[in-house]
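Fold sample X.
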Amino acid sequence: MDKPWNNKAWFLVLPVVVLVAFSAVIPLMTVVNYSVQDTFGQNVFFWAGTDWYEQTLASERFRDALVRNLVFSFLILAIEVPLGIAVALAMPRKGWGVSVCLVLMALPLLIPWNVVGTIWQVFGRIDIGLLGRVLADIGIDYNYTQEPIAAWATVIVMDVWHWTSLVVLLCYAGLVSIPDAYYQAARIDGASRWAVFRYIQLPKLKHVLLIAILLRFMDSFMIYTEPFVVTGGGPGNSTTFLSIDLVKMAIGQFDLGPAAAMSIVYFLIVLALSYVFYTVMTKTGADRPGGR
């Protein structure tokens, strides 16, 4: 006998579908509509087809911003993932220190993005900022408003300070979920600390690291508020990422058609790279001996 179909379940899902439609699908369709049209004001639109997409892909400005985004995301992942794993391994598993460490790790995540940018903007100033004054006093020429390397270093350190805690908390949750039986067997076999990490802890962190890497990649690739508040995309265009360039084009220049096409291309790049990350990491885990 077939199980009766319960239509009431759809009424529970309907509010979520409506919310997603208004918050995501409808705005996305609006952007797609703008990306294939041109306007000269007064809501008069002209069909442009794929002209804006071709202009975006052929634009040196877009390619330069894309390269900066890729370099920034690569540096962020290369720093925050190993650092997050190391901090999670060093955190206590029992006692009052667990609560203290978890609270300290969560504090940077509670600060709004624009406040983080303002904090580091003041912190790095060479006249009143603690970091800027200290570096100047010890003879290091540091000025993030005039030197591209200093601006990049400031933005990277700021992001590491703000978001490494997310990787730490995810990795710590994965570590505490490992049964003690694995560690007892490793002690009986006389396994070294490196062997325990390589053959027990790291494989068990595979799924957690997948989530952490995907989240940090998407966040770092779409970063806007913090570098905009600190550097405004400068000096020059050295920290002008795709998000900052997109806002300048849409709001500063009011080029709605090119900006809409650029945002669609931007979205597709994030989607494609996230899929590549997910596919590579899941296949790597499956191909590993004993992987599932």
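Fold sample Y, listed below.
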Amino acid sequence: MDRPIDVDSVDLLGRVRAGDETAWAELTARYTNMLWSLARGMRLSEQDAADAVQTTWLRLVERVDTIRHADRVGGWLATTMRRECLAAIARRERVMPAGSWDDLPAPADPLEDGLIREERDAALWRALRALRPRCQVLLRVLMADPAPSYADVALALDMPVGSIGPTRQRCLAALRQLMRLGPEPI
């Protein structure tokens, strides 16, 4: 199916190529709100959105003579804007602003992180073993991956479906209490 040609855009872009400032003003008035809408949809900050809009218009100025389908200039602008927004998001994720070097976190020691994780996991398993057997079984079953349905848990543990959630909450509260008490004395 052929697309209808937007004669107005073809004429407008032709006049922009010829250096008509009025045509440029009309083109920017027609599409700037769309560009801002795309930036807001991608949750850019006000400053990043303004930069992306400005860069999109700059890309059009740089390539105005190479656009083959002048009737699709709106789509070209939208695609270019999305790319600029993605580039802004990527830059934002790479850059971490800090007030000073003192505000930066110290590099983590992978060995230390691993030891802390192992200690935490061991404490959790000790606390789990200190729970009543029914709580131990229920929490272990509910930790399965993929998680079983409450109907399956009820059949496996011979308990009503309606009591699984409240029992789970009580078991987790008991587990949290045991974790707060800290390690058992040796």
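Sample Y note: The chain has eight helices and no strands.
Also: Residues 1-5 have pLDDT under 50 and may be disordered.
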